[in-house]
Amino acid sequence: MADAAHPVLGPLPRSSPHVADDIARHLERLIVSGALPPGRALPPERALALDLGVSRNALREGLTRLAGLGLLDRRQGSGNRVSRTIPLTATLADGLRAAPAEFEHSAEFRSVIEPRIARLAAERIDPTGLTALGELLTDADRETDSDRSAALDIAFHTALAQATGNPLLATLGQLIASWTVEARVFSHLEDEGRTLSRTGHGRILAALRAGDAEAADYAMRIHLAEIRDVIEKVRTAEASEI
Question: Of 164, 186, 50, whose CA–CA distance to 115 is shortest?
Fold first, then answer.
């Protein structure tokens, strides 16, 4: 059974012919989305293998890959722990380059779900939620680091889903963050993407403060379209250099 120290992390989504690849990708997303925060201890390997429904050999291979990426600290006798510093852009952008279809799926998924979340948030958000979003936007305005900027982007959208007051939508917001994290990170590789992200969040927050559900929906659609264009430009530019 799960407890506060060792949450259930399975079942494992399967998309690759190699189990270790799916293990590494699944845990990588949980780490970067914040479901497994920096410094968090993973469950013992026997329990984690049961959670994910995999063999311990496949699990160890996946964990070794994550350690090589700098996402996990593996120490004899002390188990596996999420690294204190997560190199977001260096790891996840490479993953998206290797799987361009992920970008299209991510963009389509977000365009369907997130405008509705913004609309509901505008109707229901309380002063505490507005303050939290405002603080995240302020932090983002001061941020120049790609990794930290991407993390603040994830935090903003997750907090927006929580602001709907619907626990199922709040959970969906967390899942969106983990399922679409590669594309989010990719959008923060360049200054243009980071600037557009902050500007888009500002428009969304202004609509929420006004309690204007229609404007919040529209602001989210514009924000996602702008970010999609930035990601496509970065991907196209990098493809031309190969």
Answer: 164
The model's pLDDT over 34-51, given as tens digits with 9 standing for 90+, comes to: 778 888 999 999 999 998
CATH number of 89-241: 1.20.120.530
Residues 90, 88: Cα–Cα separation, whole Å: 6
Domain 19-86, CATH 3.40.1190.20 — does that match? no
CA 213, 218, 222: angle at the middle one, nearest 5?
150
Please tell me the pTM assigned to this model. Answer: 0.68
- DSSP one-letter string for 65-111: HHHHTTSEEEETTTEEEE-SS--HHHHHHHHHHH-HHHHHHHHHHHH
Q: Which of 160, 175, 179 is closest to 217 using CA atoms? A: 160
